[in-house]
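4.2 Preliminary Data

To establish feasibility before requesting continued support, the project team ran the inverse folding procedure on a target of 213 residues. The structure was first converted into the token representation described in Section 3, and no sequence information of any kind was made available to the design step. The complete token record follows.
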């Protein structure tokens, strides 16, 4: 708990919700259709909902990262990870790109991204600087790709990183556990939702923090 306090106490934090979208999370989404197991998403969603409710109650900003892919951003290198060279995931304006069982409030920021990391070619850094954020509380999918990539870049840009292990999901448990170990060793720390919500409760209710849109 001491490490968590060091990362949250007297630090302005934001909850970062990464790619909780139909194509990554829904049983009928693109990831499930190509054979990945999305069942871990269902397990983590109650904890994510609880964390978001607590963050909003205690005035902690919530920022949503939303993947959007289209011809303008699907470079030859980027789509080379698909055997047929066609990207089936999160096409701009599609059902697959819509949020899955979460919804930003009108005053919450959505940052659209086109790569694994939320910092690459996006306005995330500008938003965080404007809000004077110091600690990123990382949630979402998948743990070992977009969540980890964003966490790594955030750490190297001098943000404190708290990865919420029960509010993230990967498509295998091994991949999930691998990222937990990596982040906890090299890029910040790992905590669970109960620890974070307990900290906020002990701090008491606060006035809502500035949120830009």
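Position-by-position output of the design step:
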């Amino acid at each position: 708990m001491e490490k968590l306090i060091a990362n949250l106490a007297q630090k302005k934090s934001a909850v970062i919700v990464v790619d909780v979208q139909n194509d990554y999370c829904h049983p009928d989404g693109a990831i499930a259709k190509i054979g990945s197991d999305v069942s871990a998403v269902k397990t983590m969603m109650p904890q994510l909902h609880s964390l978001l409710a607590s963050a909003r109650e205690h005035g902690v900003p919530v920022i949503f990262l939303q993947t959007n892919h289209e011809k303008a951003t699907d470079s030859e290198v980027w789509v080379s990870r698909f055997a047929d060279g066609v990207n089936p995931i999160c096409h701009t304006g599609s059902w697959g790109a819509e949020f899955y069982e979460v919804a930003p409030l009108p005053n919450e920021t959505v940052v659209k991204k086109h790569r694994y990391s939320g910092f690459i070619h996006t306005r995330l850094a500008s938003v965080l600087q404007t809000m004077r954020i110091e600690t990123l509380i990382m949630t979402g999918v998948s743990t070992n790709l977009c969540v980890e990539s964003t966490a790594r870049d955030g750490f190297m840009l001098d943000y404190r990183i708290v990865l919420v292990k029960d509010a993230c999901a990967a498509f295998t448990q091994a991949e999930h556990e691998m990222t937990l170990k990596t982040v906890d060793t090299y890029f910040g720390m790992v905590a669970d939702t109960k620890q974070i919500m307990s900290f906020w409760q002990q701090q008491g209710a606060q006035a809502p923090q500035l949120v830009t849109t």
